[in-house]
Design brief:
Elements lengths: L1 H72 L3 E5 L5 E4 L1 H7 L18 H4 L6 E7 L5 E10 L5 E7 L19 E8 L4 E8 L3 H4 L2 H7 L5 E4 L15 E5 L5 H9 L3 E5 L13 E5 L5 H13 L3 E5 L4 H10 L3 E2 L16 H14 L4 H9 L2 H11 L13 H8 L1 H14 L6 H17 L5 H13 L2 H5 L3 H7 L4 H9 L2 H14 L10 H19 L4
Length: 541
Amino acid sequence: MVTLVVLAAVLAVLAAVLFAQLRASRAREAVLEATRARQAAEGERLRERAAALEGELEAARAVAARHRRLVEQAGDWIWETDADGVLTYSNPAGAELLGAGELVGRSAVELTHPDDQPAVIAPEGFAGVIRRRHADGTWRTLDTRSAALPDGGWRGIDRDLTAPAPPAPAPAPERPGVAIVRWPVVDGRREVVGYELVGAGDVLDGFAPEELQELGGGRPVWIAAPEDPERLAGLAPDRTVLQLAPGTPDERARRLREAGFGLALDGLDGDDALLEHCGIVKVHTRGREDDELRALIARPAERGLVLVATGVASTEEFTRCRVLGFSHFQGEFFARPRGEGGEPTGALASLQTLAELTGEEGSFEELERTIGADVGLSLALLRYVNSAFFALPREIDSVREALALLGTRAVRRWATVVALSAVPDAPDQLVALALLRARMCELLGGDSSEEDRDRLFTVGLFSVADALLDAPMETILRELPFSEDMTSALLRYEGRKGRILATTLRYEQGHFPEIDGDPLELAQAYLTALKWADDAGRWVG
């Protein structure tokens, strides 16, 4: 019995042990199953994350490739350098811009104009205008933006600001060659109210209507009335004054007036019939006594017509005609000293330093210092450089930028123009005449050197200095360090420059000579200079 009890107890213990082991085994299996499930879930998550990262990487590669293409195809030069300024990257635009086969490995500093090199290695980077050397030895003017890299070196972008060559103009329709000049008609304040167009032939034969109106520079043009009124087609009546000769049939004058044209009677012969139709009467005053002129203009004056004195050659003659009752004037008087001044002082001060640089080549820094010392001149020059005449791609903020962009020759030229136009009480027409003469003298320089053409431009520009400063030319030139050939050209029309200036002045007065066997060469030079002076003159001052 006891044996059975013991045996039962042993079996019970064994059963308990086996049961405990079974439970522990099942617990381990559950833990393992949970671990396997957890690991499977983690693996799935990692696979999903890997797939997502692979997708992001592929997208990043696509973006990088797209950006790379944008950089490679960009029209601007994008570059990077190391800490020594040696190029480590350059997109293809750089090679095209500077005409170089390979830029990586070259020094960006050595590719830069000596005056601009400090900007290239500025510690924090640089933004502004600099010059880079082209493979042909010339300089390209660039707008550059650069930033320092954290590990040393710079990254930047350069945009070409060098003015492109203008496109070839479309060929003009064939027309008979007619040499032409324009003579201003001014009022008592010497303000231009219109331009008479005078030609070696009929101006209507040589120019289309729109070309004639353009020659007026925005003011009415005065032309001789043609026999056939059909030839006036295309001319704006409100911007055209037709000049009638004495003896013109009354009916013809009436029809022109009814068409809306302004009419000017060019001379008086005692017949009052045309005074009924003409609002303007022109009288040549040179060589006529006061009593003769009073009697001549009495009838048109009673009608309230506009009286134009022509052939007025001096300030004294201008004053005499005003006293006699003339309200408008033509002649050379406005381009001559008024005789009211003496020694030129204040107005000449800003011209003196500029003339030194005009006469003798000055450096970049000297010109910047000269212009910068005159605040008024600096502001006026920058206003002009930023005008529509130059149409620069961005605004220029300093004289230095203007010099870098346009070059010392151009800035020296335009600073002188601006200084001349800033002379107190300078008539606009006188400034326009200075620009016209300057450009025409330059054009007639032909194949001369660039330096010689610059001097011809200056000779033409300063040919009105006596009228602008109201002082004798001899007195003015004593104050300006011009070379002897420029001085003799301005005073006595000597030398090649003097002959070119004299030819320009004769043509301006309506003398149409032939030069070098080509009767159209001078005419073309005048028209080109005239249009250029009109465009430039709109923005001066």
